[in-house]
Amino acid sequence: MNYPDYRPRRLRRTEGLRRLIRETRLSVDDFVYPLFVVPGSGVEKPISSLPGQFNYSVDKAVDAASRAADLGIPAVILFGVPEHKDAVGSEAWKDGGIVQKAIRAIKKARPNLVVMADACFCEYTDHGHCGILSNGELDNDASLENLARTVVSYAKAGVDVVAPSGMLDGFVTACRESLDEDGHEQIAIMAYSAKYASAYYGPFREAVQSTPSSGDRRGHQMDYGNVAEAVREASMDVAEGADIVMVKPALAYLDVIRAVSDEINMPVAAYNVSGEYAMIEAAAERGWIDRERIVLETLTGIRRAGADIIITYHALYAAQLLAKR
Ligand code: PBG
Ligand code: ZN
User: Fold this and answer.
1) Nearest atom in ligand 1 to 201's CA
2) What positions carry a catalytic annotation?
3) What pLDDT is stored for residue 212 in this prediction?
4) Bridge partners of 37?
5) Domains, the chain, ranges and CATH?
6) Looking at the whole model, is its pTM more than 0.90?
7) DSSP secondary structure, 156-216, as one string
């Protein structure tokens, strides 16, 4: 395979040839679209740090989910901003809670759309931490009990996939056991297995007002220097019953996605997080980069790294681009 006998440029000559030999293809089938649900009705409030993304009341979330479904996107993932926050985040497991209402409404309107729901407490606690605090520290095992209640209430509302995101030890076991005990053995778990303590979540925390009032999440989220630990976390979650494992964020962690997808024989999701979206939008807005090309290149890169599923705020936009190609 040497020049001049082999000339790699021969197969790069036309778009048709390039399409034929392309190794990684991006498809609308890969996408999960995140939605932020807030109390009220008729609410469609722009999130300033996530241009093009909104806080939706349940009725408007149904419209947004329908737009995603109409574009062929298979799934949405829901985040809730409750009416009232308290010390334990009790609205998270309320039968009439914001996410539970949204699950019911979306499943009713679009039964074939996969509805996933993020399960954590940072959006629900007045201190912004991902569970119950004792002596200022996150109390792992006490928080697991509330997580178990929360995922069961999501299952009762008709969710397809629960997505525990707190990085608590034993969080998948807590979800699987409580779901099974309540007769929801068909409800899948997508575990935030390797979720790094990351500055890339900044815009998300503005969207759900979940910035911790003191301290940070480095006691439970992963240190960004580590990759072997990510594989360890993912294998523990699979042993505990995870159906899908996730790496998050995506772009600074493509090697982690690769390692997890090589080592773990389970579907791998990558979360293309808020800060990654915001950087592209900010630069595109100024005309510094070409949004269309950057979005497709970025999402293809995440797939090439080994992700089967991409959770992305660009889902609707990318689905439109793919449809017109
Ligand atoms: C926690 C959660 C976070 C994100 C998803 N689930 C934020 C955090 O840990 O502070 C981040 C998503 C994003 O930045 O797009 N419930
Ligand atoms: Zn959290």
Assistant:
1) 14
2) 195, 248
3) 87
4) 56, 80
5) 24-324 (3.20.20.70)
6) yes
7) HHT-SEEEE-S--TTHHHHHHHHHHHTT-TT-EEEEEEEEB--GGGHHHHHHHT---SSS-
